[in-house]
Amino acid sequence: MQTTDTYDVIILGAGAAGLMCAAQAGKRRRRVLLLDKAEKIGKKILISGGGRCNFTNLNVNPAAYLSQNPHFCKSALSRYTAQDFLSLMRQYRLTWHEKTLGQLFCDQKAPAIVEMLWAECRAADVALRLDTEIERVTHDAAGFDLITTQGHYHCTSLVIATGGPSIPRMGSTDFGLRIAKQFGLKNIPFSPALVPFTLTQEMLDGLFAGLAGISTEITAECAAGAFRENLLFTHRGLSGPAMLQISSYWQKGAAVRINLLPGKPVFTWLQTLQKQRPKAELKTVLAEVLPTRLAHRLCETLFPNRPLGQYGEKALQAIAQQLQAWEITPAGTEGMRTAEVSLGGVDTRELSSKTMEARQVAGLYFIGETVDVTGWLGGYNFQWAWSSGWCAGQTV
Ligand code: FDA
């Protein structure tokens, strides 16, 4: 007969949130088992930030998170902060640097973060089973029973930390939502976020022809989102941090408004140049403030290229408007295949914001990306994983 291993806490998913939760629960002398279907722990941490792991952000605040309930993340983010994670790193003599916009990267690279989290788990006697698929989860008054490809398990607290479905080739799944549905919890379907845009072939062959590879600082706006970062033109569409950020706010059919010269009063700047250099061509002066290929392409497609002295006031105004509020309607996004995270997850109304426990199912917890809380690009998503994992770890 198959024997059943019993634990106080079983955590499904040995990623960012699961590792943090396991270490915290273990420190409270709970008997903890971490289960993961992958062959190693922390796979997304290892590939994050180009291998350097952008592990948090100095500007973490609730406004940097998208959720149907923007208040939900406040409690966890204030209970376990970016500074708390930095204290942990100091204990392990790990160092970091700020790249831009408060984004902190680990000097010792991503594997050092995984090693640190695993050292915390080891010190707290956390057990680990890798290569383990969960076949069935059942629940009764005594707790949760799990049938897996590696055996049967029982626990009183079950934590779902299986992340979101972005980058399916890494084995990512929507397992968290399937468990939520099994227990009757509402959810917001997962959709790709922090993802490059695609353009139609007509756009790529027309206005955008020859622009691939160009990067320039812009502001991008769509719905409630507005970001000042770099735009990268690609062979398939638009990418770069500004576009990844705004993709989280974009809905199919909507236009993204781009200011190619953020912070510049373009109309008065053009008027001044018109007086000072009336013979200078528009494409020449634009190439002084924009990448040359882009400046020339705009003058071939969006507006006529002439010596500045030949434009009337209305024409200059129209050019300024195009440069500062260029509306592009993407065809779509690259989808889950390349999305850095996913929007959606377990509806936060189903969970306690303090403990992450399901209100209707005692002992069942959801943390990290499985919850409907999605951060901006720049370390915000790992901070949510650390904070939500830490909070659940105090209660499981
Ligand atoms: P995470 O995905 O880390 O872990 C889930 C775990 O569950 C995995 O180990 C998986 O194998 C396991 N699992 C899944 N299904 C299972 C099942 N059915 N049974 C058992 N186990 C299962 N964020 C950031 O803040 N800074 C950054 O620099 C980056 N960089 C980055 C780069 C790339 C390429 C990607 C794809 C993502 C990022 N991110 C990021 C986002 C970040 O990786 C993400 O938000 C966190 O990893 C989410 O942590 P979780 O613990 O919730 O899921």
UniProtKB/TrEMBL annotation:
Signal peptide: none
A Pfam family reported for this protein in Swiss-Prot or TrEMBL: HI0933_like_1st
Domain RsdA/BaiN/AoA(So)-like Rossmann fold-like, chain residue ranges per copy: 8-394
TM region(s), chain numbering: 6-25
Keywords: FAD, Flavoprotein, Membrane, Transmembrane, Transmembrane helix
Every RsdA/BaiN/AoA(So)-like insert domain range: 192-341
Cofactor(s) the record lists: FAD
Keyword match Ligase: no
NCBIfam families named among the record's database cross-references: aminoacetone oxidase family FAD-binding enzyme
Protein's name according to its UniProt entry: NAD(P)/FAD-dependent oxidoreductase
Record lineage: Bacteria, Pseudomonadati, Pseudomonadota, Gammaproteobacteria, Thiotrichales
